[in-house]
Amino acid sequence: MAPDEQGTAGLTDDVLLRPVRGGNSYEETVSRLLQAVRLGVVRPGERLPSGRELADRLGVSRATLREAVGTLQSAGYLESRRGRYGGTFVRGTLPAASPSAPGSDRDLARELEDVLVLRMVLESGAAETAAARSLSRAEREHLAVCATECAAADLTGYRRLDSRLHLAVAQVAGSPSLVSAVADVRSRLNALLELIPLLPPNIEHSDHQHACVVAAILGGDPAAARREMAEHLAGTAALLRGFLGPDT
The whole model's pTM is what? Predict the structure, then answer.
């Protein structure tokens, strides 16, 4: 075995490189690979398994795996090498887990988990409540317009319009206090999102999930609205935990 291939056997750790679950296959794949790299399952300079093997182990398509690997190459975690001993390798020097995060890693971890739990409770409930209401024509149009404008946004405006759409869901739930709470948690979330790359595959996935959430709300299906929103929030949570979660 070539020197830069040694250690690949350590990738048999089924705890991290196990099949992903749910509808957020891209985000979960990014998170699993990040964990494997940052926890030392595969060390700097080591090669990942082949695309076919890794896709099989994670239970995702080759296309999803390529997108996830491409994301981590752009973020500075992985690199591609050609030739007889080529493949996808972990870079020798890895980016810091939270390059501009305020406070200690422990503070960041606490803030991350607090925001993600609170967001899940508030926003999945907001979607369910909105779907259970008899919405006015103005409310329905507002929600639809926010979704359309978010889907059409470029990278520079995406997070602003994404925030606006999530606030719109809270607005049509009919509780001003809920809108205030969602606005607060979204401000905290955006501060964390600024610490990770803005990933086009995730945006495309999020746009599809937004459409499903809005369709469930406008269709008056509370259970589907809660389910679709929870799945959407779980995808963002997976990326944040992958990029910003503790190394140990």
Answer: 0.77
